[in-house]
Design goal:
The complex is a heterodimer of chains A (346) and B (398).
Chain A (H helix, E strand, L loop, with lengths): L1 E8 L35 H6 L2 H16 L5 E5 L5 H13 L8 H6 L3 H10 L4 E5 L5 H15 L4 E8 L3 H9 L26 E8 L7 E10 L3 H14 L9 E4 L9 H10 L4 E4 L1 H4 L5 H13 L9 E3 L7 E8 L3 E8 L1
Parallel strand pairs in A: 2-3, 2-4, 7-8, 7-10
Antiparallel strand pairs in A: 1-5, 1-6, 4-5, 6-11, 8-9, 10-11
Chain B lengths: L3 E9 L6 H10 L27 H8 L9 H17 L3 H5 L3 E6 L8 H8 L16 H9 L6 E4 L5 H14 L5 E8 L3 H9 L23 E9 L10 E10 L12 H14 L6 E5 L6 H15 L5 E2 L2 H4 L6 H15 L31 E7 L4 E8 L3
Parallel strand pairs in B: 2-3, 2-4, 7-8, 7-9
Antiparallel strand pairs in B: 1-5, 1-6, 4-5, 6-10, 9-10
The chains are: A alpha/beta (346), B alpha/beta (398).
Chain lengths: 346, 398
């Protein structure tokens, strides 16, 4: 599977060229909010006002790609929470008004498949259309679905994406579940913070993928996932991923790891580095965009940029390399329970 | 190419707690849509629902779970149906934990059935309930994967009311492509104030038992269910009793409206045509259609138009939502199980409550239990909000 084009809205200035040219946003709170564009050329203002943030980000990243590649055969998205703000607004009304007369707008927009549905509607795309919502593995699941589709229809082209938004409601729930730090940490100090929990981010990364090498930005050689893996099982999986492409760990130039400053679970990344990739360049990304369920879509965007010659900011470089990488392994876990990994080459 | 054989099924719905109870109710024409026993909602006294007649506490006891475990009703029903399916298929622990086994579920409600706890936790009104990890759409999938030590591919699909039809489709595709040996596929959704009020706000929630394909249909009855199927590649289930085969599937988007189907039935036609194409089954070979048949004004007419357009005629059909209510994310897999009952028993379960035929179509749904024709191929339709249409074609396990 090859990446032909991509688009990204994130807490960094990734929708323009600013981030790629070296501009970095810093955060002093525990939620990193997306730098959204104005959307004015894409979405009529009357519709924009009623749209939830995840929908805006989904249209903002997906619609230009679908317009640019009108022959796209299907849309496969990943989102853990979908229109969470709409869901909670509707739920709050249900409780507050004791199930009185309510307006349906929030309800209709709350369903996670509304994003892929609206993209289909706006571009009259009647092809394959699926939304994966499997928490921290939703994007890896969608990627496997896309890869299977392209094997079934080798000439096809797909829109693949992963997106989630910050909302105070899911922030509160995850805070109660112990996911976030109890004190604010400056983003420049996040990875060395030495305390449990992380920070919350958001964003949307979308890709045009197909099975034609010509004009590709990167090739996705493999993707895998597992829940409840032991460390030994994870190492075995990562080795198997490399073996399936006739590679050994030494063939990898760089690893992109999901370090998020959580002292209790960052050890997984340390172990992967120590055991498999002790000499390779190492990059982080969550100190740029925060933690969220589909953040591995951002990791794929980031790694694709690295393969294309992007000089990453010092904030993202945990171990430098003098050379542009040719083969990158991305490993990310969600709460050390859901583990996802991707292999990317030029 | 490997074939995707159904070797196990598990189901819990308003018709009962296992396959046998569900089959008997269908054969007896007994609807499960009644006044609810457990649902805490203003609508409990005014509306009928397809409620599962088992309390959360009883589910926990039957499943051997501690009474304070943070599982939602969505999770409990899923685990209950999952157990029946894998037991029937005779899957071992080694089978479940194999990287060649996928678990593909679906839900549109997830933990939102815990309305009041969710309201409190999301607004920080207390110390946090035991359910903080149970709210998301994918929570039940992860809980079951961890409980059952499932370590291969797992996902949760949400395409609204076609969600679990897409679970079946994805599982069959992975098996046919040789990526995995087996998949446990299906979906789960509990009754929730969230969806009840949502469909009510759209003015498509019926107070009485729904009347699919009636000229004066009054909207949908909401129900709850979980249904799972074990799919295995033909090479790895030799010696097992095959119940059915997943022959074809089509997924398309209607690309018309966020909450209604187009007059031209674009998505419906594309989904059915896709299922015919992948299965190689000819339109005239379809013995029976288990229709989406929600009993909303928009769905039923559009569905019949789409069937007419894609098949050229309207075969015998019925909507079993007149027994279970609309079970949303579980509907696709629940109705696939019912379609497999039709294949196994050579029966068509009648459409209840259709009194006045629709003006636009002379073909009425089946209204009596039919045992007079062999059921060779069944088409099962599922259409959802945001234009998500999926059709499956199921056949006998030869």
């Amino acid at each position: 599977m090859y990446i032909k084009d991509l688009s990204c809205i994130s807490p960094q200035q990734t929708y323009s060229q600013a981030f790629l040219q070296g501009r970095i946003e810093h955060f002093k709170t525990n939620h990193y909010l997306a730098a959204e564009p104005s959307y004015e050329e894409l979405i009529p203002s009357s519709k924009l006002r009623r749209m939830g943030k995840v929908m805006r980000m989904g249209i903002g990243t997906g619609l230009p790609l679908l317009n640019k590649y009108p022959e796209t055969k299907g849309i496969i998205l990943a989102t853990s929470e979908g229109g969470v703000e709409d869901s909670m607004n509707f739920l709050n009304q249900v409780v507050k008004y004791q199930e009185g007369a309510l307006t349906p707008t929030n309800f209709v927009q709350s369903t996670p498949n509304a994003i892929a549905g609206l993209l289909a509607l706006m571009t009259k795309n009647t092809g394959y259309n699926v939304t994966h919502v499997n928490k921290g593995l939703a994007f890896e699941s969608a990627l496997t679905d896309a890869s299977l589709f392209l094997e079934e229809e080798p000439g096809a082209r797909l829109l693949l994406g992963g997106l989630d938004q910050f909302s105070v409601y899911n922030y509160n729930i995850e805070l109660l579940a112990g996911a976030y730090k109890k004190h604010f940490v400056d983003s420049s100090q996040l990875l060395g913070s030495g305390s449990p929990g992380t920070v919350c981010g958001e964003g949307s990364a979308m890709f045009i993928v197909d099975s034609q090498k010509k004009g590709a930005l990167a090739q996705i050689k493999g993707v895998g996932q597992g829940s409840g893996l032991s460390l030994a099982e994870l190492m075995e999986r990562l080795r198997a991923l490399l073996t399936s492409s006739n590679l050994v760990p030494e063939d990898i130039d760089a690893v992109v790891l999901g370090y998020n400053g959580d002292s209790e679970t960052d050890t997984w990344y340390d172990k992967v580095r120590q055991e498999l990739f002790p000499h390779q360049a190492v990059y982080s990304f969550k100190n740029l965009v925060g933690e969220y369920s589909t953040v591995s879509a951002f990791a794929l965007w980031f790694a694709t940029q690295l393969l294309s010659g992007f000089m990453p900011p010092k904030e993202a470089v945990l171990k430098a390399s003098g050379e542009k990488p040719k083969r990158i392994l991305i490993y990310n876990h969600h709460r050390a329970v859901q583990h996802g990994y991707m292999l990317l080459t030029v | 190419m490997p074939r995707a054989i159904v070797t196990g099924m598990g189901v819990v719905s308003a018709l009962g707690r296992d396959c046998r109870e569900n089959l008997e109710s269908l054969q007896n024409g007994e609807s499960g849509i009644r006044k609810p026993l457990f649902l805490q909602s203003r609508f409990s006294s005014t509306h009928l629902f397809g409620e599962v007649k088992t309390s959360d506490a009883e589910f926990k006891e039957r499943l051997g779970l501690s009474s304070d475990i943070g599982f939602s009703r969505t999770d409990l029903m899923a685990l209950h149906a999952f157990e029946e399916a894998v037991t029937q298929a005779g899957l071992s622990q080694a089978d479940l934990s194999s990287p060649d086994t996928a678990f593909i579920s679906a839900s549109t409600v997830g933990g939102m059935c815990l309305t009041d706890q969710l309201y409190a936790d999301s607004n920080l009104l207390g110390e946090g309930s035991s359910f903080v990890k149970a709210y998301s759409f994918g929570a039940h999938t992860l809980s079951i994967a961890l409980l059952k030590n499932i370590k291969g591919y797992s996902t949760t699909i949400n395409t609204a009311c076609s969600s679990s039809a897409n679970s079946i489709m994805l599982g069959a595709r992975l098996i046919k492509a040789g990526k995995i040996k087996r998949a446990i596929v299906g979906g789960t959704d509990a009754l929730a104030k969230f969806t009840i009020n949502g469909f009510n706000s759209l003015q498509i929630l019926s107070a009485d038992s729904c009347k699919p394909f009636d000229e004066f249909r009054t909207g949908l009855s909401l129900g709850e269910a979980a249904a799972y199927l074990v799919l295995e590649s033909d090479a790895c289930c030799r010696g097992k009793k095959g119940l059915a085969e997943v022959l074809g599937y089509g997924n398309a988007n209607d690309a018309h409206h966020p909450s209604a189907l187009s007059d031209e039935a674009v998505g419906v036609v594309a989904a059915i045509s896709g299922a015919l194409h992948t299965s190689g089954v000819l339109p005239e070979q379809i013995s029976y259609i288990n229709a989406h048949g929600t009993a909303t004004p928009n769905n039923d007419i559009t569905e019949l138009k789409g069937i007419q357009k894609s098949l050229g005629f309207i075969p015998p059909y019925s909507s079993t939502k007149s027994y279970t209510g609309h079970t949303l994310g579980a509907a696709g897999s629940l109705e696939a199980v019912f379609s497999i009952f039709s294949l196994l028993q050579n029966e068509i379960y009648p459409n209840l409550n259709c009194e006045t035929p629709m003006k636009a179509f002379s073909e009425r749904p089946e209204r009596k239990l039919r045992r007079d024709i062999p059921i060779r191929f069944v088409l099962s339709n599922s259409f959802g909000f945001a234009g998500n249409c999926t059709s499956l074609i199921l056949g006998k396990a030869s």
